[in-house]
Design brief:
Elements lengths: L5 H20 L4 H10 L4 H22 L1 H4 L4 H23 L3 H20 L1 H11 L8 H20 L4 H11 L5 H26 L4 H22 L4 H23 L1
Helix pairs in contact: 1-2, 1-3, 1-11, 2-3, 3-10, 3-11, 5-8, 5-10, 6-12, 7-9, 8-9, 8-10, 9-10
Length: 260
């Protein structure tokens, strides 16, 4: 049983509020919540699973907000990508649960580095992929098979760790020729909900969730998502992105020093 002291509860609640706020305006919330759980004494694998649970309700709420944009999408493509996301999310979660704690500890700095780099260069990567996309691409069976395979890999990564998964999903949708950023964000949110939803169920069944911390962070993420976002939207997005990148770099360095 991992105790939740008053000091740790305050740290986790603040981290969840900050993470929920960031996710609602710029992304990068997982770079705050996951390390905070480790700092407060939660083992890394349980911290990853608990962080997934804490962030999932926010993703569901975002999906509801995009319901109008989702109504314009091809149902067949949405169903195919969602089904692939469900499979990949379970595979990633099972892979995490079967990873030795010591090995996952050594993977943490690399996972944080990947997530930070994806966040830092998200604008450039998406712009380049848009240039490569094909207008009104015909979704033939070979293309659908390739897209499904790529989505399976991304969903597996999402179920395993998930930092930066949103950008990878947008990249796939851009290469499919999608241009409407609102529709892309809507579908990305649905796929994220699918991946993290089945991962959450898998973690719950396996008993990998630290519930006092998870419930506290869910409340904090909701407060941040609906309250903190009001003030964050008044700030320059560039400064918010710089803050997330700086935090990501510092945490990456810290965990490299800690585990190597």
């Amino acid at each position: 049983m991992i105790s939740l002291t008053l000091t740790n509860a305050i740290i986790l609640f603040i981290a969840a509020v900050l993470g929920g706020t960031l996710n609602s305006v710029a992304g990068g919330g997982s770079l705050i919540g996951f390390p905070s759980l480790i700092f407060t004494g939660v083992p890394s694998i349980q911290a990853n699973a608990t962080n997934t649970v804490a962030l999932w309700p926010g993703s569901v709420a975002s999906g509801v907000a995009y319901r109008k944009e989702l109504a314009t999408l091809r149902r067949g493509l949405t169903f195919l990508l969602s089904a692939t996301s469900l499979v990949g999310g379970v595979l990633g979660a099972l892979l995490l649960l079967h990873t030795p704690q010591s090995l996952f500890n050594h993977l943490i700095p690399f996972l944080l580095l990947i997530a930070t780099l994806l966040f830092a260069f998200s604008g450039q990567i998406t712009a380049r992929l848009r240039m490569l996309s094909i207008e009104k691409m015909r979704l033939t069976w070979p293309i659908l098979v390739i897209v499904s395979f790529v989505q399976l890999i991304i969903a597996t990564y999402g179920g395993y760790f998930g930092g930066g998964m949103g950008l990878l999903l947008l990249a796939v949708l851009a290469m499919l020729g999608m241009k409407d950023i609102h529709a892309m964000n809507g579908l990305k949110t649905v796929l994220t909900v699918a991946v993290n939803g089945v991962a959450v169920i898998t973690f719950i069944i396996a008993g990998a969730i630290v519930w006092p911390q998870a419930i506290l962070m869910i409340v904090g993420a909701i407060v941040g998502g609906y309250g903190g976002a009001y003030y964050a939207r008044k700030m320059d997005q560039r400064w918010i992105r710089v803050f997330v990148i700086v935090v990501g770099v510092c945490l990456t360095i810290y965990f490299f020093v800690r585990y190597y």
